[in-house]
């Protein structure tokens, strides 16, 4: 069955918005999203105008020769970090240009990227815990402080993941994680475990630092995407405030 021009542009618009939504949810900056979507649209012979906000994407595809355009809006998923998705979509966009993929091939590749397995939860918790212990070592902590930092980071991330699964507000999840990590590491300060227990206390929440939002905020501001840059910057500051509030709560409880 031969598709009409309207059906083709509708299907392409849906694919492009899904790609943009995946990039946004995976931690890509505004410039990368815009370049990737325009590259794919141009590969199929259409021009595109894209409006990118923190929570939604609006795309207009148009064909100047046929004097036809189509607009569509899509809300984005909660933001996180998935660089495998970002790099996979980037490679896919170039293959679309070079190998002239049809829409079904693009959809199959999107489905494949979405189905890629994540690392097991225990592996993620252990690796992030080791990262927390390593930060503690860099600050000058000994073996006891490193162990405390590992346990605090491990349990804090476990609590955050559990809170996210229960659909708590994202900032509350950060607060819960920071509070639990601070309570665990603060106990070592209260009991004076090790020579410098304050090192474990200070580094037990570093896994929550919003590096990606702050980096993307600066990148967007430098690229001239001022609205997205400011929104992402404020998002990062609210995360930082949630971390600080969790630390403060533990300090007040232990009076340290």
Automatic annotation (TrEMBL):
Keywords: Cell membrane, Membrane, Transmembrane, Transmembrane helix. It is a multi-pass membrane protein. One of its GO terms (molecular function) is transmembrane transporter activity. Coiled coil: none annotated. PANTHER family: SUCCINATE TRANSPORTER SUBUNIT YJJP-RELATED, UPF0442 PROTEIN YJJB-RELATED. Belongs to the ThrE exporter (TC 2.A.79) family. This is Threonine/serine exporter family protein. It comes from Gaoshiqia sediminis.
């Amino acid at each position: 069955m031969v598709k009409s021009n309207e059906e083709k542009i509708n299907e392409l618009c849906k694919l492009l918005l899904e790609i943009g939504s995946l990039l946004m949810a995976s931690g890509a900056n505004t410039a990368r999203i815009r370049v990737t979507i325009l590259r794919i649209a141009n590969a199929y012979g259409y021009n595109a105008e894209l409006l990118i906000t923190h929570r939604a994407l609006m795309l207009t595809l148009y064909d100047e020769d046929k004097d036809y355009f189509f607009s569509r809006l899509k809300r984005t998923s909660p933001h996180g970090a998935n660089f495998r998705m970002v790099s996979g979509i980037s490679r896919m966009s170039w293959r679309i240009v070079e190998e002239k993929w049809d829409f079904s091939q693009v959809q199959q590749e999107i489905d494949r990227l979405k189905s890629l397995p994540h690392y097991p939860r225990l592996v993620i918790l252990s690796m992030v815990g080791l990262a927390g212990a390593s930060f503690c070592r860099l600050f000058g902590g000994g073996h006891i402080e490193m162990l405390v930092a590992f346990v605090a980071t491990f349990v804090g991330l476990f609590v955050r993941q559990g809170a996210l699964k229960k659909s708590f507000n994202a900032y509350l999840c950060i607060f819960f994680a920071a509070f639990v990590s601070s309570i665990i590491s603060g106990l070592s300060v209260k009991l004076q475990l090790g020579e410098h227990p304050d090192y474990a206390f200070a580094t037990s929440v570093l896994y929550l630092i919003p590096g990606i939002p702050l980096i993307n905020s600066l990148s967007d501001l430098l690229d001239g995407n001022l609205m997205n840059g400011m929104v992402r910057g404020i998002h990062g500051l609210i995360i930082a405030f949630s971390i600080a509030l969790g630390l403060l709560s533990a300090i007040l409880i232990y009076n340290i």
